[in-house]
Specification:
The structure holds 2 protein chains of 2 kinds. Chain A is mostly beta strands. Chain A has no helices and 11 strands. Chain B is built from no helices and 11 strands. The chains are: A mainly beta, B mainly beta.
Chain lengths: 114, 112
């Protein structure tokens, strides 16, 4: 049981480059989301999805795009990387309200923008 | 929107002592309050959660209490062990929306 899988684990980007952080879950969860974690600020929600084909913005969506073409996958795209996007990114999933809202996190993706 | 404050930011205890971490929230609509433990280089792991229809929940050495009137909830760890050392985060959410708002974390250090 893999749970929530994120790739890559580490990435260094140059300012202006684009990239995609991958997230996949094998629990058939409807809800998926992306958070970023910065020192002293806890985790902040970037984008989330309540099901395939449905996405919405979280607290800090600027500079990021998401799509949800399948239930399993929820990639996060950085359109033009900036140093302010240096952070640790976590993908999360849950099965939704009916089964108690337990939200599972992946292991994280460390991104450095230089 | 929701705002969650967490205290203390660091907590040092001796092995066997109890540890208490407190959080307050601002949105009275929040009804789901999980606690996560994060070890170095890992993602947050759910350790216990509580919903607004109960005031206390316990799981072995870990307990969470919720005071809806005062809008605060607390994590209690008894008989602490060195392996409890980690960063602990509280969070709040409205059931069904899956949008967690996190506190800023508490670094717990348990000394042998």
């Amino acid at each position: 049981n893999a749970g929530v899988t994120q790739t890559p684990k580490f990435q260094v980007l140059k300012t202006g480059q684009s990239m995609t952080l991958q997230c996949a879950q094998d629990m058939n969860h409807e809800y998926m989301s992306w958070y970023r974690q910065d020192p002293g600020m806890g985790l902040r929600l970037i984008h989330y999805s309540v099901g395939a084909g449905i996405t919405d913005q979280g607290e800090v969506p600027n500079g990021y795009n998401v799509s949800r073409s399948t239930t399993e996958d929820f990639p996060l795209r950085l359109l033009s990387a900036a140093p302010s996007q240096t952070s640790v990114y976590f993908c999360a999933s849950s099965s939704g309200q009916g089964s108690g809202n337990t939200i599972y996190f992946g292991e994280g993706s460390w991104l450095t923008v230089v | 929107g929701e705002n969650v404050e967490q205290h203390p930011s660091t907590l040092s205890v001796q092995e066997g002592d109890s540890a208490v971490i407190k959080c307050t929230y601002s949105d009275s609509a929040s009804n789901y309050f999980p606690w996560y433990k994060q070890e170095l280089g890992k993602g947050p792991q759910l350790i216990i959660d509580i919903r607004s229809n109960v005031g206390e929940k316990k799981d072995q050495r870990i307990a969470v209490t919720l005071n809806k009137t005062a809008k605060h909830f607390s994590l209690h760890i008894t008989e602490t062990q060195p392996e409890d050392s980690a960063v602990y985060f509280c969070a709040a959410a409205v059931t069904g929306f899956q949008k967690l708002v996190f506190g800023t974390g508490t670094r717990l250090l348990v000394s042998p």
